[in-house]
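Z., the sequence and structure:
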Amino acid sequence: MIRIGLIGYGEWGPNHFRHFSTLPGSRVVCVCDLNATRLESLRPTHPDLELVSDADAVLGRKDIDAVVIATPATTHFQLVKAALESGKDVLCEKPLTLKSSESDLLHEMAQRTKRILMVGHVFLFNAGIRRLKEYLDRHALGTLHYIYSSRLNLGPVRQDVDVIWDLASHDVSIMNYLLQAEPEEVSANSGFFLQRPISDVAFISLRYPKNVLVNLHVSWIDPVKLRQITVVGSSKMIVWNDLSPIEPIRIYDKGIVHEPRYSNFGEFHYLTREGDIQIPRIDLVEPLRAQDTAFLECVKQQKQPLSDGAFSVRVVRTLERISEALSTPHTFAPAPPARLQSAG
């Protein structure tokens, strides 16, 4: 039985509590939050559960095997560091920290103390994303050209981090996972329309190895909720729609081909090829439950998680580069003046 201490009972904490309270082989024994009202909501149904407002009360307990940290990102570094120092395995919500140097330190500490450090990059446990990774690994789309994603909604608006560290962190983790690499080039534009200087919309361009182009659009102020990724290859294309529970993936057998025969360059044409649309069967499970189950397996078997410290450092490093690209002033050369020719 893995005994769990949960730090943070705000947005994601109750979901972790639900899973670790019902998954075989785990039990939540202590919950910590600064909001007394949230904690008291647990007392009627869980009278034996210890409820505390000080994280040290969780970390100091010798009977707790693992800690789940679901607090604001600004608190992650100190809490994860203290948990590892106390000999606990750790599942921390994304991003691991707001500085790659701090993430590096935590990863090295977990390696040195032989503790499990897993970060909640939950879309790595999404069945649709897993299937998409399988297609890319076996080159089912031909040569990969580009990927673009949209993660949009009207809210929720955060004040601790901007839209890049909130929403784009999901898509960066997905792209790094799908392509097994970090981007070689980064550029971005963002806007803050609600609360300066926190960006609430961003357009991010990334170039990965093998000249794969990636574009990310994230926003807190869009009229339509959208979570979608389009992957374009030389022979096939895939659309993943996270909001479609019945058919999250559609495979389009489409592409551009050379005309097979022509006698000279003037007769050369590119032709579109239209094929079938395939909708593979995908057995969907709640990604967070799959993630929390994977964490328990890693703790029991002491094996490295998919979203371990090393993976999470690379995500934070990419997010840093995006933020740096935004802070770097861009200079645009003016268009050359039109050349006028006199009549006659």
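The first strand starts at residue 2 and ends at 7. Confidence is low (pLDDT under 50) at residues 338-344.

Let me know what you think.
H.
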